[in-house]
Structures are given as structure tokens and as C-alpha cells.
Design brief:
alpha+beta, 3 helices, 4-stranded mixed sheet, 135 residues, 39% strand
């Protein structure tokens, strides 16, 4: 039986990182995200969320790897496929700013039927698309 899930949304996605402070510096300094929360949970754990500078979209929970299996997942949360999609209203502006900030693009920008896109890697090696959708 199906139902409509009114009033729900995906609000936060967890990204496994090696170090909290390095991850904050990368997402804020290189992508221009805003630090939303940094709460000490005790025992070396923190609840850290960042979001695109516009305040729109899903927040990322920067989760420090705990244990061998989580450490092994750093940079490969989707088995080598693109993991997240950073949508922009001005591809050229954001591509240039990100490249100037040291973001590693894995390819030159390309035009697809769905928009302009280029794959980049985050500080851990997860793959992202920077994308300006066709309107």
C-alpha cells in the first residue's frame, strides 16, 4: 500500500570525514558553505552541519569516521560514483571560484541534455557534480 509522505523532506546527508576541522575548513573555505552547527557531544564526537551559502538545499553532517569500516569508506561512500550534486544558477561563476579556491575538478565542463556539469572531488575524494540545470 502506498501513501503520500506530506510534510517530510530529506534534510541532512552524512558525509564520513577523517577530521572535523579539516572538513569544516574545506567546505566553508573552498565551496563557500556556511557552518550551521558545531556541537560538542563529548568523547571526541561533534555534531557538525554545513550548508550551501545560500541556505538552500540539504545540509551535510560531517561525521568523523569511527572504526575500520568507516575509515575505509572515507572518499568512497558510493563506490566511485558521483555522490552529491551541487546545483548552481551560474556555472561559470561557481566553477571559476571553486577552481581558484583549489577545488580539484576531474574533467572539463561539459554540456549535457540536462545542463552544464563538471565532476569534482571533495577533500576526502568523494565525487560531486557541479551542475547548472537546463531551464
Amino acid at each position: 500500500m502506498s501513501f503520500v509522505a506530506a510534510g517530510r523532506r530529506i534534510a541532512t546527508v552524512s558525509v564520513v570525514v577523517a577530521d572535523y576541522d579539516q572538513a569544516i575548513a574545506w567546505y566553508v573555505g573552498k565551496l563557500g558553505f556556511s557552518l550551521v552547527e558545531d556541537v560538542d557531544l563529548g568523547g571526541g564526537k561533534r555534531w557538525i552541519t554545513v550548508e550551501p551559502g545560500s541556505g538552500q538545499g540539504v545540509r551535510l553532517l560531517l561525521a568523523k569516521a569511527d572504526g575500520e569500516s568507516q575509515v575505509a569508506a572515507i572518499g568512497n561512500q558510493t563506490g566511485g560514483r558521483v555522490f552529491l550534486f551541487l546545483e548552481t544558477d551560474d556555472f561559470a561563476r561557481d566553477h571559476a571560484a571553486m577552481a581558484a579556491n583549489g577545488v580539484e575538478f576531474r574533467e572539463a565542463p561539459r554540456h549535457e541534455a540536462y545542463g552544464t556539469v563538471a565532476v569534482f572531488a571533495d577533500l576526502c575524494g568523494n565525487l560531486w557534480d557541479l551542475i547548472e540545470p537546463k531551464r
